[in-house]
Every structure is written in structure tokens, then in C-alpha cells.
Amino acid sequence: MATANKVTVIPCGAMTADLTWLLLKPGKSITDRNHKDGPAPWVDVPTHCVLVETDEGKVLWDTSCPSDWEDRWAPTGLQDFFPYDKVSDDEYLDARLTQLGVGLDEIDYVILSHLHFDHAGNAQMFKKTNAKLVCHEREKDFAFNFEGPFNGAHLKADYEGLDFQTVSGDTEFLPGITLIETPGHTVGTMSMQVDLPDTGTMIFTSDAVYMGESFGPPATPAAIVNNLEDFYKSVEKLRGIQEKTNATMVFGHDAEQIHQLRVAPEGSYT
């Protein structure tokens, strides 16, 4: 089996938000009568990217949030619901890549799990590089064809003017990298499976699964789900792959898990 060479998880600080956006769970985000006067819990919503090194090039998975988030997101109003307010200057993506000694011109592919503003927020950094931008075919069709500057968390300013090559179905993309079709969160959300020589299999779920509590079992949905039936199918699809491969699952926005991983700039997986 072909394997990748190295995986580096790149933490990029955190947004904060009402937990209900991420987890529709009685007793956790949905209160009972004994707690009806209390505010809904606000939690950290960490954001990360992943650098995968293979014999056939370097891949960046997702691009996190932009440093000008407050202005960029203003048309949507979502800056008040998901403020990117727990981030330092050295945690923005460009600073992280500098810490790793990786120039933008060294990245061969930028694969976007989906085109929401906290995953495609720095895609424009690669406009004048040789990096090939990749997303799911259905994601591109939706993201470029709605009316107006934004639709939900899709913000055209993040990705307009960029050329994307697309994939569909489950795709062996490069040695050790398989893109997995996991719609539900959006019409074209993908997860990424990386097979490594020492660590074994890692699965980066992006927002197909927000956090360990979402994964369950049982799977627990969120307020931001485009298609609930697809969401459940995708979670169970990932669970099947995880059971078959004994994969390490890395969830999209898990505030506890991000601190348990080996992360950039010091840590990596081989």
C-alpha cells in the first residue's frame, strides 16, 4: 500500500461560538427546565490545517480563517456568531507556514474540504502560486452559482477568481492520500484519509464530524447541517472506514482533541 511520508497538523487558534451550532444534544446544548434561565454555553471552536508530504508533492488541507475576518465576514453577520477571537499573530496560517519553513511556492496542492469561510478563508494566498486548488465537484457548483456575495457560511470573496480542479466520489489523490466524499455539512464536504508508514491511518473529518461527541456513537448532528440524512450516512461511512483501518480520527473543531495531538511547529506524524 502506498503511504504518505509525513503529516503536520497546523493549529490556527480558535473561533468562539454557541455550542448549539456544533452539537444538538439534550443536556449539553439544549437545556432542561431546571436550566432554562441560563445562557447557552459558548465554547472554543479551534481551527486547523494539515500539511501532508508525499513523494509526489506537498498538500495543504484547508486554509483556516483570514486575519481580516472581522471585515471580510461583515456582509454575512457571522462575525458576531463565530468571532475568530482566540488567535495570536503567530497562529495565522501564513505565520505557521513560515515557522515550518514552508514557502507558499513549495505547496503543490491546496485541497479544500469545503468552501466555508473558516476552511477557505486563506485560499486567495495561493492565487499567484503554482499550487493547484482542489475541491469537490458539487461544492464548486454550489459555491460559485448562488446569487449575491454569500450564502450561509459560503463567502464568494474567499474563493472568487481562483481556479479549482474538482474531484467526485472517493478519490486516491496522491500516494497515501484518499479523499472521501462525506456530504451533509455542505453538498460537497470531503474528509481526507492519510496512510502513514509508522502512525498508520489518520482520517481528517473536517466538518463531516465536528468533534468526538458528534461522532459518538450515536452520531449527534449540529445546527449547521445542509442535509441531515447525508450527515448521518457520512458519519457511518467514516465509522466503517475507521473500524476497518483502526484509523486515528481527527475531528474538524474539537476543542479538547486539538490539545492532545502532536501539532506544528514542533510535532508531526510519520
TrEMBL record:
UniProt xrefs under InterPro entries: MBL_superfamily_lactonases (IPR051013), Metallo-B-lactamas (IPR001279)
PANTHER family hit by this protein: 102 KBASES UNSTABLE REGION: FROM 1 TO 119443, QUORUM-QUENCHING LACTONASE YTNP-RELATED-RELATED
Metal-binding among keywords: yes
UniProt family annotation: Belongs to the metallo-beta-lactamase superfamily.
Metallo-beta-lactamase domain mapped to chain residues: 46-253
Needed co-factor(s): Zn(2+)
Domain of life of the native organism: Bacteria
Pfam family, one: Lactamase_B
Protein name as it appears in the record: N-acyl homoserine lactonase family protein
Keyword Hydrolase among UniProt keywords: yes
Keywords: Hydrolase, Metal-binding, Zinc
